[in-house]
Write a structure and sequence with these properties.
This protein is of the alpha/beta class. It contains 14 helices and 19 strands. It has two domains: 340 residues, Glycosidases (TIM Barrel, Alpha-Beta Barrel), CATH 3.20.20; 71 residues, Immunoglobulin-like. Helices cover 25% and strands 19% of the residues. The chain has an eight-stranded parallel sheet, covered by helices on one side. Strands 14, 15, 16, 17, 18 and 19 form a six-stranded antiparallel sheet that branches. Strands 6-8-7 form a three-stranded antiparallel sheet, with no helix packed on it. Helix 5 runs parallel beside helix 6 and helix 10 packs parallel to helix 13. The structure holds 1-O-alpha-D-glucopyranosyl-D-fructose and calcium ion (CA). The site of calcium ion (CA) has 5 residues, from loops. Keywords: Glycosidase, Hydrolase.
């Protein structure tokens, strides 16, 4: 594996710092806590970590509202702690990717404080300001992802400003060249410190439609839609050509350093074309991920159609896949809740994730097979969930603290009451518990990822012959110098018999019996078959 292309096919472990490990016992996870757990992370056989934001922030959106891009929020530690984490990770040959939330800042950011003073200050045009319509209402019908109009009236400046997310997350005006340069400078700060890459938050939201055209097809009663974006053709954050130009500028910047990478988050219903636009031709982002397999839809047929679409549209672009993250119901609950054997299905899905063509994000706790935590309304922290409860319960259920030890208070995450409670259902699934059980999801993950490192086709190969029939999904991974690898998944509780053709060798199997040329599945499971010469 060439150093330059380490990201291609890499497994990236996503850490939500607030909830990983609390080293100083104040109830909130921190950078030192991550450093202390690096040996555990290394033991998973992942290649990199992606840290959700740890920058200075009033934490209205738990760090996705940045008020200083170049410092660590005191809740997480300080810059020295980050350098220590980086050094320790590199010693273990773990790459470090950090989140960059460039599309918007916090309203506490000095740039916004300056910008809102009046219409003629040095930062006056750094955000998206506009006059009201003649009747005083917002400039157009755009909706915030988190609900309500995406325009907020500012009584001081006597204008509206744009916010795609919370009111406290004003949208930066990327059409202003000064803003573009500033954001590149912010990134450079971290490149100079030695980070290996950036996860670019909402990379397709940077540029808005300067004509401020209304969204067509907006449903009348938007108030009940917890994700209005699904119902709009959002003219202002689609694939604007300016975005692609700026992606090139970011690539140009990171290319001045050795072996750095960019992975973009593309939030759009029809993401495949955008993913190609953003990652093709080798002069923009290295890779990008969409929400296509982060939603509720499930089944062999659906998976096959997503994979096939991606294959046909993503020519030379490179996808990254995730089944879970800090915004979405954990996969064990989202897709495996109704299964009679959720553990088998969850582990089968982990194997599927690791067999897809692309890089992979594994969200903290996914290796333990954690289900979504159930929370009461009173316990909620996420403003999105608080707004739309109970139709939408928000994102706290996937953000509760990691369980480390079953028999300790707060499952060993912290000695004091954490910012979100550890789920009751997570105690028996704690790391220490799973370490001592050779049949655990933790060991499954670890072993599969070790095996994956030996399979060039799984890491970098092509994907061909994508097929679905009933509950079975199969495809072939192949690359130049190795034998084609057939990956065959059974995604149902039912028993299933599979006949193996003569010229195949069984490389790996799960939840099945094998005799002669017959494989019998006892429920969800998989086999990996190598074609002989
Ligand atoms: O999430 C982006 C996000 O919420 C959208 O992409 C949305 O899910 C999509 O449009 C659905 O159609 C990122 C972060 O991951 C999240 O935690 C932040 O709250 C958000 O940006 C704002 O910074
Ligand atoms: Ca702490």
């Amino acid at each position: 594996q060439t150093q330059e292309e380490w990201w291609r096919g890499a497994v990236i472990y996503q850490i939500y710092p607030r909830s990983f490990y609390d080293a100083n016992n104040d109830g909130i996870g921190d950078l030192q806590g991550i450093t202390e757990k690096l040996d555990y992370i290394k033991s998973l056989n992942v290649d990199a970590i992606w840290l959700s934001p740890f920058f200075t922030s009033p934490m209205k959106d738990f760090g996705y509202d940045v008020s200083n891009y170049r410092d660590v929020d005191p809740i997480f530690g300080n810059l020295e702690d980050f350098k220590e984490l980086l050094k320790s990770a590199h010693k273990l040959d773990i790459k470090v990717i950090i989140d960059q939330v460039l599309s918007h800042t916090s309203d506490h950011h000095p740039w916004f404080q300056e910008s809102r003073r009046n219409t003629h200050n040095s930062k006056a045009d750094w955000y998206v300001w506009h006059e009201p319509r003649s009747d005083g209402t917002p400039p157009n019908n755009w909706q915030s992802v988190f609900g309500g109009s995406s325009w907020q009236w500012d009584s001081r400046r006597q204008q509206y400003y744009l916010h795609n997310f919370l009111v406290s997350q004003p949208d930066l005006n990327f059409h202003n060249p000064e803003v573009q340069q500033q954001m590149l400078d912010e990134m450079q700060f971290w490149l100079d410190l030695g980070v290996d890459g950036f996860r670019l938050d909402t990379v397709n939201y940077y540029f808005h439609d300067e004509e401020l055209r209304n969204n067509p097809g907006l449903k009348q009663d938007i108030r009940k839609l917890f994700n209005p974006y699904d119902f709009q053709r959002h003219l202002y954050d689609k694939n604007r050509p300016e975005s692609i130009d700026f992606a090139k500028r970011m690539r140009h910047l990171v290319a001045q350093y050795d072996n750095r990478m960019l992975v973009g988050e593309i939030g759009d219903k029809h993401a495949e074309k955008l993913m190609q636009d953003y990652t093709g031709d080798g002069d923009k982002l290295h890779t990008a991920y969409s929400f296509r397999l982060l939603n509720k839809e499930f089944g062999a047929g659906y998976f096959a159609s997503v994979l096939a679409q991606q294959e046909s549209l993503l020519n030379d672009g490179w996808p990254t896949w995730a089944f879970s993250n800090h915004d979405i119901t954990r996969v064990a609950s989202r897709w495996a809740e109704e299964s009679q054997n959720p553990k088998a299905l969850t582990e089968t899905l982990l194997a599927l994730l690791f067999c897809l063509r692309g890089s992979v994000c594994l969200y903290q706790g996914e290796e333990l097979g954690l289900p979504e935590a159930e929370l009461e309304f009173e316990q909620l922290q996420d403003p999105w969930g608080i707004t739309f409860w109970p139709e939408f319960k928000g994102r706290d259920g996937c953000r509760t603290p990691m369980p480390w030890q079953q028999n300790k208070v707060n499952a060993g995450f912290s000695e004091v009451s954490p910012w979100l409670p550890v789920a009751e259902s997570h105690y028996p699934l704690a790391v220490q518990q799973q370490e001592s059980d050779s049949d655990s999801s933790l060991h499954f993950t670890r072993h599969f990822l070790a095996f994956r490192k030996t399979q060039q086709a799984l890491q970098k190969g092509e994907i061909k012959h994508i097929q679905a029939q009933e509950h079975q999904l199969s495809f072939v991974r192949l690359c130049k110098d190795t034998q084609p690898l057939t990956c065959w998944f059974w995604l149902s509780d039912e028993t299933k018999e599979l006949k193996v053709p003569d010229n195949y060798t069984l490389l790996r199997s799960y939840n099945c019996d094998y005799n002669d040329d017959k494989i019998i599945f006892h429920g969800a499971g998989f086999v990996l078959l190598q074609q002989d010469d």
